[in-house]
Amino acid sequence: MADQKFVATNGETWGHKWGFRDSEFILHTDRTITLSGNRYDLCGMVMPDFIPYVEESLQIKVDPDDVLPEVEHKPVPPPQINPDFLSAVESTFPTDRYSVDSIDRLLHSHGQTTSEEVYKILYGQIDKAIDMVFYAESDEEVVELIRLAEDHNICLVPFGGGTSVSSALKLPKSENRMIVAIDTRRMDKIEWVNTEDGRACVQAGITGSKLEKELYNQGYMVGHEPDSIEFSTLGGWIATQASGMKKNRYGNIEDIVENITVITPRGILEQNQATTRVSMGMRPQNLLFGSEGNLGLITRAIIKIHKLPEVQEYASAVFPSWQKGVDFLQALSRTNYIPASVRLVDNIQFRFGQALKPHPEGFKKLMSRLQKLFVTQIKGFDPYQMCAVTFVMEGASKEVAYQKQNILELSKQHEGLPAGPENGKRGYMLTFAIAYIRDFLSNYHIIGETMETSVPWSKIRQVCQKTKDKLFQLHEKYNIPGQPYLSYRIPQIYHTGVCIYFMFGMYMKGIKGPEVVFGSIEHAMREEIMKNGGSISHHHGVGKLRKDFLPDTMSPASIELIRQLKASHDPNNVFGIRNNVLAD
Amino acid sequence: MADQKFVATNGETWGHKWGFRDSEFILHTDRTITLSGNRYDLCGMVMPDFIPYVEESLQIKVDPDDVLPEVEHKPVPPPQINPDFLSAVESTFPTDRYSVDSIDRLLHSHGQTTSEEVYKILYGQIDKAIDMVFYAESDEEVVELIRLAEDHNICLVPFGGGTSVSSALKLPKSENRMIVAIDTRRMDKIEWVNTEDGRACVQAGITGSKLEKELYNQGYMVGHEPDSIEFSTLGGWIATQASGMKKNRYGNIEDIVENITVITPRGILEQNQATTRVSMGMRPQNLLFGSEGNLGLITRAIIKIHKLPEVQEYASAVFPSWQKGVDFLQALSRTNYIPASVRLVDNIQFRFGQALKPHPEGFKKLMSRLQKLFVTQIKGFDPYQMCAVTFVMEGASKEVAYQKQNILELSKQHEGLPAGPENGKRGYMLTFAIAYIRDFLSNYHIIGETMETSVPWSKIRQVCQKTKDKLFQLHEKYNIPGQPYLSYRIPQIYHTGVCIYFMFGMYMKGIKGPEVVFGSIEHAMREEIMKNGGSISHHHGVGKLRKDFLPDTMSPASIELIRQLKASHDPNNVFGIRNNVLAD
Questions:
Q1: Which of B552, B555, B539 is nearest to B491 (CA)?
Q2: Do B282 and A562 touch (CB under 8 A)?
Q3: Alpha carbons B335 and B337: distance in angstroms, whole number
């Protein structure tokens, strides 16, 4: 293996771990933490409560001097080059389109799954690497590359933001061919905007942040806000069937997209035009949501756009218990005043939010104390039981007013107390901090991950409890120090159920093969989720991480149908990333 | 051919033409019409204005004595029986499960498409008939029947309500095997209801009316109301990707269904449980919407159910012109107070509604005159330009109040005038009369049909105008008497566009092969629709009627993908009805 000192080359982002290079949580000698840089509202705040929160939650001590060192010289397996293919590429494309550089290859050989990917990159090594990275700039180049790949028996892997957390970008062990990642991020233009119809045609390599920024300048927006919005791409959203925070107003990705162009070894899958709701017989487009790189490369999509809302407001409410909060959400789900986003966090996550606050000073401090007093002393809320619901409301001012009034009224009926817009806003702000915190804590032997599922209303309690029980049970079984951390929130509500989003972590100091142990616990938790009525995924997708659960998800004939489809449409398995039903 | 005097055997319904046997429009000697029976609000009313409206619209005279006689002795091709299959069926199933009776076969050999189906049955003969009807009562029977069909090289055709208007039930000319229709209507039970999660598991042969009635008795509803709700089935809705009048509140069929069970020759396609929104990799279920009998038999689905709303209210508004109405709808589509149903009818259809009113008497007459005066004299609305929008609002009383107030306010901004709940209710009532009127008018040489498409906001004017031009142009070219009738409405709005629903008709007296001429005009109109930005269908589906337009709808590779899927999953083409991409 080439022994490569690691320097991130992905511009402003790390590439090998989460996020921007200038945004890092830092532990100071006084045991406060700060977030570096100035990208986020949290940046620069001195947060003294976080380490104590971690220590209390995990029942461990964080030792600032006991840092798990990141591997500095990343071992990258040497590229396996098919010389005929390489010379065909060299004679067909300009040299800036492809790279066999070790770091480029490493950066395209994984996603952001903790156990199977990031932990290995940070502290060990990955098993398999991409052999070449191709930076496609047009449909024509993609068509040509696929032709060459088919001719030379090459495996192609679509690569967007690299934020997959389902091991969808993990390379299949059984793949013996040369593997080329197609990085789509140079195909990042908005091709046209039609404001009358509320549509835009957008290249698939655009990141969420760029997409929203460019539309914003024209007075428009998409409103698709997955937590990865800064880095993930339109193509990735479609391939994983992504969900956005504000789906109640703008829809999930399958509601937003009206046409997809996918280039496959057998031609281009697309509709001749975008279609407002249509009945058109069996519709190939419907298979592309969740296709996870199995069929071809998504190069563009026509998507719905919206005028920027007149008003955006935050709000929040606290509830004496998780169950009260869930009851409120269910009642809300039956109304016509569901805000763009609504989110219930459990008590542990509520306190997590508090722990990431700077110490309030002066008048603010006073107010903050008074508020706490009212809620806990007068209303009798138990600080270790209470939960919070946060809201984002968008629309015309009278629409937002209607939502706000009714939401607060309904929350009162469920013993909720208004907790102000600031706490609402803070709740959403923290969303972007989670992955940075994962990488920060891993320095101190704490491995963390998130995990989501969709669950019917009647099974929420059961899924949460059983998943927690399983984690505690295995934590004990593996003799892991301290106690496990498990927190959950409900970031999405639907008519028949919700998405539950778990955050969990463990202090793995002294555990041998910690990422493997962690991964097996995660697997067992998913098993428990599904046994109790949860789904295989709400929006992260299946990839390879959850392939074992497909037989619990659909019938054997359903799986076979997709396999046959793949076999007949891509008989040489050019798109050989082998996700979901095709996983080994 | 067996010469068979026709007696409908489908219980209360005709089966060969639209609707209930006791509900027929009757032309009286004084040129008034009435609707027989007592199923509909319209029944028993004396309507003197309708025949004059028809005569004015078509520029013809309706001669009550010049009736086109229905063929009394329907010729039915003799059944082509595979004797081995027949004896296998006889030894496997009770005798009440199957029939080779000519009338049973005839009733299962077509849908309700005017040109290619109903007109032929009424006044001529169909080309091809089903050879046996199988009345399935359970999944086990379906599995067994499919096994026998595969063993004996039999073609199977799913049959639900028989209300298809896309020639999806028309038998393929190229089919030489014995053809068996599987009538699903004995599989019509609600298997379970889960009110906490808002779900029910329902057998696919249930009709909309039965489904809603049974849920109503438990205080629940689905809210899927296609115009065919009285007769069409859950399985049919999925197979055609149906849309319901109240989709703004309850969703279209793809929004309502959370799990589908389809029995195919290669096993059962289904998920192991219903899922609230899920990302699960490539999802076979997504292919079943619009599958039109191509893959297997849908036997059950898990669907969303809702508590009966606290309030249901109708409302309506009139607008000085079609364009003002469209502008209002577009503005409404961007709000959060879209009612369960909203519908804009053009001036011709507005007057159609007036023509189906009984002559008002006494105070009602006075009020009616005054209203007309106000709208036309004071506000200056041209009675030959004005249009109407009708609304159905459902929900909690405060939700409905919020909608009503804002809708009327918004309509004012677009020069709309409130026209009261009665006119709203009437508009929806007439929905159910359309198909009866088609069959009534065909007695007097008038052939009529409906046709729908989805269109982006920017193309509405163009699609309507060009479609109308094409109709008038061909009407002249074929020397058809009088003038053609064309009316349109917008029954559904979406973010990027609308569904346009056309009603058109012609007086075909003296035209040779009138249904063929009519069909070719319809085909040319669809061509025009698509050329100008409309879609192949909004909710009727593709079937065989619109197969020619699939290459204008999706790419060659997309069509090939579905063909390969079919070839590998049903290699013997047991489900050989050949719709959409599989049509000859």
A1: B539
A2: yes
A3: 6
Any CB–CB contact under 8 A between A59 and chain B?
no
Which phi and psi angles does A394 have, rounded to 5°? Answer: -135, 150
CA distance A33 to A53: 12
b/e burial code for range B6-38 (CB count within 10 A of at least 16 → b): beeebeebbbbbbbbeebbbebeeeebbbbbee
Residue B8 confidence class, pLDDT cut points 50, 70, 90: very low
Interface test with A, best of B252, B262, B264, B277 (most A CBs within 10 A): B277
Window 127-156 of B, Cβ < 8 Å to A = none
Mean pLDDT value across residues B340-360: 92
Whole-Å CA distances, B197 to A303, A435, A460, B190: 31, 32, 11, 16
**A188 with A207: CB under 8 angstroms?**
yes
What is the H or E stretch that residue A504 is in?
strand A497-507
Q: Map B80-117 to HEC letters.
A: CCCHHHHHHHHHHCCHHHEECCHHHHHHCCCCCCHHHH
Comparison of pLDDT for A126 and A220, the residue scoring more: A220
Residue with tokens 């961007």: B334
The continuous run of DSSP H or E covering B255 comes out as: helix B253-256
Q: How far apart are CA A428 and CA B84, in angstroms?
A: 68
| Cβ distance of A290 and B277 shorter than 8 Å | no
Interface test with B, best of A232, A278, A294, A405 (most B CBs within 10 A): A278
Task: Compare CB distances from B557 to A268, A306, A581 and report the shortest one's residue.
Answer: A268
pLDDT at B382 over 80: yes
Q: For residue A363, is pLDDT > 80?
A: no
Contact status of A458 with chain B (Cβ, < 8 Å)? yes
d(CA A192, CA A172): 37
Q: Kindly state the DSSP code that residue B230 receives in the 8-state scheme.
A: T
Alpha carbons A57 and B177: distance in angstroms, whole number? 70
What does the alpha-carbon distance between residue A399 and residue B409 come to, in Å, rounded to a whole number?
A: 14
User: What's residue B367's pLDDT?
Assistant: 63
* pTM for this model (two decimals): 0.96
SS3 label, residue A40: coil
pLDDT tens-digit series, residues B420-468: 998 889 888 888 999 999 999 999 999 999 999 999 999 999 999 999 9
Q: With a threshold of 0.90, tell me whether the complex ipTM lies above it.
A: yes
As a whole number of angstroms, the distance between CA B243 and CA B491 comes to 10
Residues of A in contact with B454 (CB under 8 A): 275-278
Whether the CB-CB separation of B394 and B340 falls below 8 Å is answered with yes
Q: What size, in residues, is chain A?
A: 584
In the residue annotation, A314 being an active-site residue is answered as no
Helices vs. strands in chain A: H and E counts, helices first:
19, 22
Q: Which among A198, A271, A569 has the least Cβ separation from residue B564? A: A569
Q: What's the CA dihedral at A218, A219, A223, A229 to 10 degrees?
A: 50
CA distance B131 to A406: 60
| Residue B583 at interface with chain A, using a CB cutoff of 8 Å | no
Q: How confident is the model at residue A7 (pLDDT cuts 50, 70, 90)?
A: low
Q: How many Å apart are CA B76 and CA B105, to the nearest integer?
A: 8
Instruction: Please write the tens of the pLDDT for every residue from A406-461.
Output: 999 999 999 999 999 988 898 888 889 999 999 999 999 999 999 999 999 999 99
Asked whether the beta carbons of A484 and A505 are under 8 A apart, the reply is yes
Structure tokens at A16: 């090998």
For residues B335-339, average pLDDT = 95
Chain B segment 201-260 residues within 8 A of A by beta carbon are: 240-243, 249, 252, 258
